[in-house]
């Protein structure tokens, strides 16, 4: 059986929500507000690994509300993956005093509400969040998802010619948008940089602006 599209799941889950106190997740969030989110994890296997830090920051229009942020450190059950430690530089001793993920998810859901979620390769972060939300309310996140790498692709490569080299890396995207690089693989920093990319790309789309071609690239149609 093919998986249900998220929009259809949202309609179904609205009527199967186990805890009706979370019905606010299906209500529209404040107008023109989204939440940029990022997770750091013990590894990249959704079925085995755990969230160790999660951060989110609200965006209202073109303003990033750093005063309205969510940051939590979780105490994971899974062992730290050595490769993951090299990336986020957090040791087991750094997170052993963290909160239980169930309480973090409760607080996170109330912080996000019905706002759309923004992320860079958001599918992984949402899968990790859903893994912990499902036992809590028996449904996945119903929020609309906005993928900044897709926004960047559309503005940068939307009229690319066959064979053109495509680079959707976070570093390249920030460089071309002129966004200063904060210390990467810190959940809050990554959420803020993602929010900055979202605001810049949304503005480009609203103004009908695309990235200029680099020397040697085809101009396309």
For the residues shown, what is the average pLDDT? 86
User: Given the helix and strand composition, which structural class is it?
Assistant: alpha/beta
Which stretches of 5+ consecutive residues score pLDDT under 50?
none
Number of strands: 5
Largest sheet: 5 strands, mixed
**How many domains make up the coordinates?**
1
Computed over alpha carbons, the radius of gyration is 18 Å
Label the overall shape.
Answer: globular
Number of helices: 8
What would CATH call the architecture?
A: 2-Layer Sandwich
CATH class: Alpha Beta
CATH superfamily: Ribonuclease H-like superfamily/Ribonuclease H
Explained architecture:
It is a single chain. Helix content is 39%, strand content 16%. With 221 residues, it is α/β, with parallel strands linked by helices. The chain has one domain (6-207): Nucleotidyltransferase, domain 5 (2-Layer Sandwich). Strands 3-2-1-4-5 form a five-stranded mixed β-sheet, with helices on both faces. Helix 4 (101-112) crosses helix 5. The longest helix is centred in the last third of the chain and has 21 residues, at 187-207. The radius of gyration is 18 Å and the shape is globular.
């Amino acid at each position: 059986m093919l998986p249900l599209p998220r929009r259809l799941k949202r309609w179904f889950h609205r009527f199967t929500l186990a805890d009706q106190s979370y019905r606010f997740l299906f209500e529209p969030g404040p107008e023109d507000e989204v939440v940029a989110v990022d997770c750091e994890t013990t590894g990249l296997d959704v079925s085995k690994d755990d969230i160790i830090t999660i951060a989110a920051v609200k965006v209202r229009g073109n303003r990033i509300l750093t005063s309205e942020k969510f940051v939590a450190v979780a105490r994971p059950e899974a062992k730290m993956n050595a490769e993951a430690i090299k990336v986020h530089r957090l040791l087991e001793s750094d997170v052993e005093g963290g909160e239980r993920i169930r309480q973090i998810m409760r607080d996170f859901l109330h912080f996000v509400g019905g706002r759309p979620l923004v992320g860079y390769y958001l599918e992984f972060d949402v899968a990790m969040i859903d893994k912990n939300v499902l036992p809590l309310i028996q449904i996945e996140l119903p929020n609309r998802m906005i993928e900044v790498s897709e926004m960047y692709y559309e503005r940068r490569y939307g009229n690319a010619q066959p064979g053109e080299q495509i680079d959707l890396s976070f570093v390249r995207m920030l460089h071309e948008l002129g966004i200063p690089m904060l210390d990467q693989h810190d959940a809050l920093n990554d959420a803020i940089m993602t929010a900055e990319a979202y605001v810049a790309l949304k503005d480009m789309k609203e103004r009908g602006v695309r990235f200029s071609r680099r020397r040697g690239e085809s101009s396309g149609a």
